[in-house]
From TrEMBL:
UniProt-listed NCBIfam families: sigma70-ECF
SUPFAM superfamilies referenced in this protein's UniProt entry, alphabetically: Sigma2 domain of RNA polymerase sigma factors, Sigma3 and sigma4 domains of RNA polymerase sigma factors
GO terms of biological process kind: DNA-templated transcription initiation
UniProt xrefs under InterPro entries: RNA_pol_sigma-70-like, RNA_pol_sigma-70_dom, RNA_pol_sigma70_r2, RNA_pol_sigma70_r4_t2, RNA_pol_sigma_r2, RNA_pol_sigma_r3/r4-like, WH-like_DNA-bd_sf
Alphabetical keyword list: Sigma factor, Transcription, Transcription regulation
Ranges where the RNA polymerase sigma factor 70 region 4 type domain occurs: 146-197
Compositionally biased spans, kind Low complexity: 1-10
Native source organism of the sequence: Humisphaera borealis
Family to which the UniProt record says this protein belongs: Belongs to the sigma-70 factor family. ECF subfamily.
Highest taxon above the source species: Bacteria
Record's protein name: Sigma-70 family RNA polymerase sigma factor
Length: 217
């Protein structure tokens, strides 16, 4: 199978009709159809994997694992979702598996990034103002690299929940299933991750957002 790269994909994602036309050939074991599948989807799958894995080689390995899983399971794929959606879920799972098995890096404690309060309830270090939602910032080209660096500073369990919920847009129950935790744990981690990310983003966006955006969370 070709090594996935960001250039492996067509610039325009295949539509549902194109995927549906490819499916019978895939299920018949047509090698050319598998090559087409890689060309159509590898670039976008690599981009997803790189959001979870900081290493290009780890992300590439996750995409390779995802395609192998997809090829093994293609015979049972019922087509209720598009091939792109199906492959997206597979590469997310492959990336999470890669995260679980690789050596953990030293991490900053989440408590260091959360708001601190005095005994009478006043915030010790007030934030710089309103910060846009993670998904809104991520849509702005000039903001993406900053947001990405800040997300990467979060401890892995909080980073992963934030990526699944706010970037990949999985709901709470889906995120819980992917991570093997309960829904309440997802909500708690997500709340703390958003608070911590707000602390990290404030130096970059707090003052500007406060001047031009609404006050509040």
């Amino acid at each position: 199978m070709p090594q996935p790269t960001s250039e492996s994909s067509n610039p325009t994602p295949p539509n549902r009709r194109e995927d549906d036309a490819l499916l019978p050939r895939l299920q018949a074991g047509d090698p050319a159809a598998f090559e087409q599948l890689v060309r159509d989807h590898a670039g976008r799958m690599l981009a997803v994997a790189k959001r979870f894995l900081r290493s290009e080689s780890d992300a590439s390995d996750a995409v390779q694992d995802a395609f192998l899983s997809a090829f093994k399971a293609i015979g049972s794929f019922g087509g209720t979702a598009s091939l792109g959606t199906w492959l997206h879920s597979i590469v997310v799972r492959a990336s999470l598996m890669k995260l679980r098995t690789r050596r953990r890096r030293p991490e900053q404690a989440i408590e260091d990034l959360l708001p601190q309060y005095t005994a009478d309830g006043h915030r010790v270090q007030p934030g710089g103002g309103w910060v846009p939602a993670v998904d809104q910032l991520a849509e702005l080209e000039e903001s993406r690299s900053i947001v990405r660096r800040c997300i990467e500073q979060l401890p892995s369990q909080y980073c992963t929940v934030l990526l699944l919920r706010d970037i990949e847009e999985y709901d709470t129950e889906e995120t819980a299933q992917l991570l093997g935790i309960n829904a309440n744990a997802v909500k708690t981690r997500l709340h703390r991750a958003r608070q911590a990310l707000r602390t990290l983003l404030n130096p970059y966006f707090g003052e500007t957002a406060a001047a031009g955006g609404p006050a509040g969370p």
